[in-house]
Specification:
heterodimer, A: mainly alpha, MetI-like fold, two-stranded antiparallel ribbon, 2 strands, about 70% helix, about 0% strand, B: alpha+beta, Rossmann fold, OB fold (Dihydrolipoamide Acetyltransferase, E2P), 2 domains, six-stranded mixed sheet, five-stranded antiparallel sheet, 9 helices, elongated, binds adenosine-5'-diphosphate, binds magnesium ion
Chain lengths: ~290, ~350
C-alpha cells in the first residue's frame, strides 16, 4: 500500500496562524485601550483612595476611604449629584421628545431624495465648536441683553436667565443630534409591513406606536440615551457658561483637582459609576442585545 | 339570503407616477371561494390586495366588502386579514403574543384570547411553539404563524400575498395542500396572490389572470388552462403554443391566432395519417427535451413559428433523441384548439 501525499495548498501566514492574525488586527488598538484608556481610569480610581496632607498639600499615598466617605456624607455634594443626574435625565427626555418626531419624519415621511439632506442638516451643528454653541446660548439666555428676555419683555415676564433651565436647554441643543441619528436609523430599519400588519390586525395609530413601533426602535432610543445621558453627566463647561451659580459634578471636580487631587478623583468616579449603573439597568431590558 | 359576494371591486385603479399599477379592475369574489390572482411580477397583484386590505388608496373605483362600501375605510376597520409575503411577524413578541395581538387589540378577554390562539396554532400544527420568538422558527413555521395570526381573528376574507414564495419546493407543495385543507375547514374566502401558475391551478376555485394592471381572464383552473381567452393567458398559464394567423388559415381554415396545449398534440412519424376529426400539419423537430415523466418536442413549422408537443413516457422507448432534425406530423383533436384574442 502506498499513500499519496497530496500537496496541500498553502494559505498565507495569517491563514495558518489565526491567533497571529488577531494580534496583528487588534494589537495596536488594544494596547491603546489598555494602556491609555483603562490605565488612566485605573490611575484615577487609585488616586481616589489617597489623601493630601493638610499642611504641605503633598500627596499621601496610603489607602483610605476618607474621600468617598466625604463625598457620600456631605449634603452639598449629594445635592450636586442629584442635580446632575436630574439634569442628565431631563436632557435625555427632552432630546427623546424632540428626536422621535423629527427622526420619524426624516425616515418615514420625507422622500428618499430629501433624506441625505436632512441627515446632513442634523449633522451640521456638530461641525461647530462646542464653545461657540454654548456662548451662543449664553447670549440668548442673558437676563439683560438676551434674545429670549427681549422677546418676553413685552409680555411682562423676565427671561429664564442663567441656571438649571439654561443648562438643560443648552445641553439638549448640544446633544440632540446624538439622539436623532440613532433613532432615525431605527425608524429606517423598521419594515413598512410591520406597521401594515398591526393596522391589519385592528390596531389604530397610537396602539401601533405603543405596541410595535416603540418596542422595535427601543434599542435605538437606548443607544441615543446613552450618549445624551453620559455626555450630560460629565459636562461642566456648559454649567460654567450658562449655569450661573448652579454646579454640576464636573464643576466640583474641576474646582478641587489642583488643591485636592484625591478628592477630585473620588468625585470623578461617581459619574463613571452612575453610567455603569445606567448601562447595567439598560442591559437588563435586553436593548443592548441587538445594538 | 346572505349576499353571495364577499368582495366587489368596480373600476379599481391605482397609479404610481406614470405607472398604472392597477387599471380599472372589475371583480366579484364569492363567499367561501378560493380565488387566485395570477400574473407575472409587477402586474399589480400586490397593489390590488393592498387596496382591498386598505393599505393603499385607489385613485378611482370602489371596494365593497359583503355589500358595504369600504373604499375610504381605514385598514383597522376592515373585516379582512392579510398574510404578508415576508410574514411581518413582530420580532419582539413570542409566537403566542403574535397570534393574540389582533384579539388583544379588540379587547377580547384573556381566557378566550389564549384559548383561541392555542386553537389557531394547533390548526397549523404549531401548538408547542407558543413561547418561541419568530427568529427561532424556520421559514415554513413562520409562514404558519402568520397564517394563524390572521385566522384567529375569524375574518370574512383572508388575503395572502405570495405566502409560499419564500419556501423551497417540497415545503411549498406540502403547504399548498395544507392551505387548501385549512380553507375548506374554516370556510373563509381566500384571495391568494401568486405568480406560480401550477400553484394557482392546483389550489384555486377560480383564477384571475392579471397582466399590466388589467384582468386578462377570470375562470376556473380548467377554463383558464384549456380555454385561454388571450394570447397572454395562453402563454403565461402553461406553455405558450400559438398558431399565428397564417398557419391557422392553412391548418384550421379560419383566421386569427389559435392555441393548442402541448399535451393535446400527437407526434407521428411522417407517413402516418391523422385520425378523423383531427387537424394536422408537418414540421421539423428542432429539439427533444427529456423531462422525466414526459418528453417535449419543439417542432418548427414550415410557415414560421413553432409548436411544442408533449408525450408521456409511459410506454415504448423513451430515448427519442434520434428524432431531432426529422420531419414529423403533428395532429390534435379539433375540440382542443381555441382561438385567443390578440391582446385586449
Ligand atoms: N409604492 C409604490 N411606489 C411606486 N411604484 C409602485 C409602488 N408599488 C407598486 N408599484 C409599481 O406598480 C406596479 C405593480 O406592482 P405590484 O402590485 O407590486 O406588482 P406584483 O405584486 O404583481 O408584482 C409595478 O410596476 C411597481 O413598480
Ligand atoms: Mg407582489
Amino acid at each position: 500500500m502506498t499513500t499519496v501525499e497530496l500537496a496541500s495548498p498553502k494559505g498565507g501566514f495569517g491563514y495558518r496562524h489565526p491567533r497571529a492574525r488577531l494580534v496583528a488586527l487588534l494589537g495596536a488598538p488594544m494596547s491603546w485601550l489598555i494602556v491609555i484608556y483603562l490605565g488612566s481610569l485605573a490611575a484615577l480610581f487609585l488616586t481616589a483612595f489617597w489623601t493630601v496632607d493638610g499642611f504641605t498639600g503633598a500627596l499621601v499615598r496610603t489607602f483610605t476611604l476618607e474621600n468617598f466617605v466625604d463625598v457620600f456624607t456631605t449634603p452639598a455634594y449629594l445635592w450636586v449629584m442629584a442635580r446632575t443626574v436630574g439634569i442628565a435625565v431631563a436632557v435625555t427626555i427632552l432630546c427623546l421628545l424632540l428626536a422621535v418626531p423629527v427622526a420619524y419624519f426624516m425616515a418615514r415621511i420625507a422622500t428618499k431624495r430629501w433624506q441625505p439632506l436632512l441627515v446632513a442638516m442634523i449633522l451640521t451643528p456638530l461641525w461647530a465648536s462646542y464653545l461657540v454653541k454654548a456662548y451662543a446660548w449664553r447670549a440668548m439666555l442673558s437676563p439683560e441683553s438676551g434674545v429670549i428676555a427681549w422677546f418676553l419683555a413685552p409680555l411682562g415676564i423676565g427671561g429664564p436667565g442663567f441656571g438649571i433651565f439654561g443648562i438643560i436647554v443648552t445641553l439638549t441643543y448640544l446633544w440632540l443630534p446624538y439622539m436623532i441619528l440613532p433613532v432615525y436609523a431605527g425608524f429606517s430599519r423598521l419594515p413598512d409591513s410591520m406597521l401594515d400588519a398591526s393596522a391589519d390586525l385592528g390596531a389604530k395609530g397610537w396602539r401601533t406606536f405603543r405596541s410595535v413601533v416603540v418596542p422595535l426602535i427601543f434599542p435605538a432610543i437606548v443607544a441615543g440615551s446613552i450618549f445624551t445621558f453620559s455626555l450630560s453627566l460629565g459636562d461642566y463647561i456648559t454649567a460654567q457658561i450658562v449655569g450661573g451659580k448652579v454646579q454640576m459634578l464636573g464643576n466640583v471636580v474641576q474646582q478641587n483637582y489642583v488643591t485636592n487631587l484625591p478628592f477630585a478623583a473620588a468625585f470623578a468616579v461617581i459619574p463613571v459609576l452612575i453610567v455603569l449603573i445606567y448601562l447595567a439597568a439598560v442591559r437588563r431590558t435586553g436593548a443592548l442585545d441587538n445594538l | 339570503m346572505v349576499n353571495p359576494v364577499a368582495i366587489s371591486l368596480r373600476g379599481l385603479t391605482r397609479r404610481f407616477g406614470d405607472v398604472v399599477a392597477v387599471n380599472s379592475i372589475d371583480l366579484d369574489v364569492l363567499h367561501g371561494e378560493f380565488l387566485s390572482l395570477l400574473g407575472p411580477s409587477g402586474s399589480g397583484k400586490t397593489t390590488v390586495l393592498r387596496m382591498i386590505a386598505g393599505f393603499e388608496r385607489p385613485d378611482a373605483g370602489t371596494i365593497e366588502l359583503a355589500g358595504t362600501d369600504v373604499t375610504m375605510t381605514a385598514p383597522y376597520a376592515r373585516d379582512v386579514n392579510t398574510v404578508f409575503q415576508d410574514y411581518a411577524l413582530f420580532p419582539h413578541m413570542t409566537v403566542a403574543e403574535n397570534v393574540q395581538y389582533g384579539l388583544r387589540v379588540k379587547k377580547v378577554a384573556k381566557a378566550e384570547r389564549v384559548e383561541r390562539a392555542q386553537a389557531a396554532l394547533a390548526s397549523v400544527r404549531l401548538a408547542d411553539y407558543e413561547d418561541r420568538k419568530p427568529a427561532q422558527l424556520s421559514g415554513g413555521q413562520r409562514q404558519r404563524v402568520a397564517l394563524a395570526r390572521a385566522l384567529v381573528n375569524r375574518p370574512k376574507v383572508l388575503l395572502l400575498d405570495e405566502p409560499l414564495g419564500a419556501l423551497d419546493l417540497k415545503l411549498r407543495e406540502q403547504m399548498q395542500v395544507e392551505l387548501k385543507e385549512i380553507q375548506r375547514e374554516v370556510g373563509i374566502t381566500f384571495v391568494f396572490v401568486t405568480h406560480d401558475q401550477d400553484e394557482a391551478l392546483t389550489m384555486s376555485d377560480r383564477i384571475v389572470v392579471i397582466n399590466e394592471g388589467r384582468i386578462e381572464q377570470i375562470g376556473t383552473p380548467t377554463e383558464v388552462y384549456e380555454h385561454p381567452a388571450t394570447a397572454f393567458v395562453a402563454g403565461f398559464v402553461g406553455i405558450s403554443n400559438l398558431l399565428d394567423p397564417v398557419t391557422a388559415e392553412q391548418v384550421i381554415g379560419r383566421p386569427g391566432t389559435w392555441s393548442v396545449r402541448p399535451e393535446k398534440i400527437h407526434v407521428h412519424l411522417s407517413g402516418e395519417s391523422a385520425p378523423a376529426g383531427h387537424h394536422c400539419l408537418n414540421g421539423t423537430v428542432r429539439e427533444v427535451i427529456y423531462v422525466g415523466m414526459s418528453t417535449r418536442f419543439v417542432v418548427d413549422l414550415p410557415a414560421g413559428g413553432s409548436l411544442m408537443a408533449v408525450r408521456q413516457n409511459s410506454e415504448g422507448s423513451t430515448d427519442l433523441g434520434h428524432l431531432r432534425g426529422q420531419s414529423v406530423g403533428l395532429s390534435w383533436d379539433e375540440r382542443y384548439e381555441y382561438q385567443v384574442a390578440d391582446r385586449i
